[in-house]
Amino acid sequence: xxxxxxxxxxxxxxxxxxxxxxxxxxxxxxxxxxxxxxxxxxxxxxxxxxxxxxxxxxxxxxxxxxxxxxxxxxxxxxxxxxxxxxxxxxxxxxxxxxxxxxxxxxxxxxxxxxxxxxxxxxxxxxxxxxxxxxxxxxxxxxxxxxxxxxxxxxxxxxxxxxxxxxxxxxxxxxxxxxxxxxxxxxxxxxxxxxxxxxxxxxxxxxxxxxxxxxxxxxxxxxxxxxxxxxxxxxxxxxxxxxxxxxxxx
Length: 249
Prior knowledge:
The protein is α+β, with helices and mostly antiparallel strands. 55% of the residues lie in helices and 16% in strands. The protein contains seven helices and seven strands.
C-alpha cells in the first residue's frame, strides 16, 4: 500500500512538473510577443498580452508592465489599478527596484485623476448613477480621469438628472438634488351641471313681444285703413296703444 501511494505521489509530481513546464514555456512565448508589441509602440496590444501572460502563470512583473502600457495609453486609472495589483501579488513578487518603480508610476498617474464621490440625498434609494454611460456606485470614491464627464441619475419616482462635471482636483464630491415626479391630479367626477334655463326664457319672452308687436301693428294698420276708407280722422289712441306695446318690450 505504501509503495502504491509513493508511486502515485511521484506520478503527480511528474505531471505537475510537466504542466508547470508547459505553462512556463507558454508564459515566455506570450511575454516575448508583449515586449515586441511594446517596442513597436502598440501599447494596446502589449497591455493585453502582458495580462494574458499573467493568466498563464501569475507574475507581478507582467501586471506591472500592464500598468506601464496603460500609462503610455494615457489610461491613468488603469495605470494605478494594475500597479497596485502588482505590488499586492505575493507569488513571483516584484524586486525591490520594481516595487519602487510601481510606486513612482502610481504617484505620476495620480496627477491626472480625481477621486470622485457621488452622494445621494438621505433616504433616496433605487437610483442608478451613470458616469460617461458606465454605472458607478453612490457614496463610494471612484478614480476618474480629470476633465469633463457626463453624469446621469435615473430612478423610479424621480425626474431624470443630468450634469456635466469638470474634475480638476485630487478629490471631488458631488451631491445630487433629485426632484420627485409630480403626478397629474385625477380628473374630477360628479353630477354634470344643468344648463342655465335663463337664456332660453329670455329668448321666449323676446319672441312673445315681437309677435305681440306685429299683431298690434297689424291691428292699427287695419283700423287706419278703415278710417281712411271711410274718410274718418285717424284716432290717436290707436297710435298710443302701439307706443305702449313697444315701450313694454
